[in-house]
Structure formats: structure tokens, C-alpha cells
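USER: If only I could read C-alpha cells as easily as an amino acid sequence. It would mean a lot if you studied the pair and described how this chain folds. Here is the record:
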Amino acid sequence: MVKSLENNIAEQLSPRRTSAKQHHYAQAMKSGFEGREEELGRAMSVIFKTMKNTMPYVHQINDALIKAWLVSMQFAKNRGELDAFVTHDIETMAPINRRLKKVIEKAGDKEIALIGIFDHTACHYQLVLETESEPGKRTWTSPFKTVLEASKKIGQFDLTEQEIHECWTVPRLMGYAEALGVKFKVSPWNEDGVLTCELVD
């Protein structure tokens, strides 16, 4: 996973290489999923079933992941251990962040911190379905609103999006930044749920 991340980041930062012989137009088109067609079919079936599920609310493809995080955060909150939960998450990510820090130091490019945390991390893009990327900044919308509104009606959670942002999202990102040797500025909670994380000098 880490090696793949390093390769992806290196490819994204490097200039495009073109062969002296431009024969790519003569090669057969490939999907990139050769040998994984059955797996791809099952994945698409899951997506269709999830998006077809509209009761008691319209489900998105990140629904199960959102609920898993909410269950974990609610458990930590009930025990008064949200801070410990965040610390555990940062410690769990430490081996990956140590490797990523070396990539940042070798390349001398702090943008790699944002690429690693947001752009090339399934843990982010499977939870947050769309993130806007621009140099030194990432913008996204909190993904928890729909599930929280539905689940609160039946007494599953008492968390708020603001609480999640201030007690989980912000301290995790700050912890990651420290581990990577960079500094982040994370926006305060906004009622529209739009959030940002920026690199600062």
C-alpha cells in the first residue's frame, strides 16, 4: 500500500514522458481491469444495490463507511474517550506517515502531504466522494449529514457534524501534519458543511 502510494505520488509530480516512437495509437485499448472483470462486476452490482436503496433515505455508496465511523465515534464519546480515539488513529497511521514524510523530505515538496492524505488515500475518497484539489489546499463537504439526520430520529447517535469536525477531523489532520513535518490550517465548522485544509509555512 505504501509503495503504491509512493509510486502514484511520484508519477503525479513527474513530467509526462513520451516515447520517441509514438505508437500508442496503434495499441489495443485497455480498461486497466484486465483479469479483474468478475471483481469489477461484483463491485458495480454493490454500487447499484446501494444507490437503489432509498428507504428510509437515499443511500450513497459511502453509507456503510459513514455508519462504521459514526458507531466508533459514538462509542468513544459515550466513554469520554474521543481524545484517546483520535490519538489511537494517529498512532495507527504512524508507520504510513513516517514513510510519507521521507517522500516529502526527498522531494522537497510539502504538497505531497495533501496528496497523500486526500488524493491518493482510499480512506478519504471512499468516505468523502468529492474533494476539490488546488495547490496547497483541499476543499470538501462533510459526509455525515444525511446519515446523522436519519439515525438521530431513531436514537442511534447524538453526535453533531460540528462535534465530529472539532473533536475528530481537525485533531486527526493536525496530528497527521505533525507526523509529516508540515503545518495545516483547517477551517472552522461552517453550517453549509464545506471544509478546507491548507498548507501553511
Q: What stands out?
A: The radius of gyration is 20 Å. The helical segments are 2-13, 37-52, 63-78, 82-107, 111-119, 122-125, 145-152, 161-180. The first helix runs from residue 2 to 13.
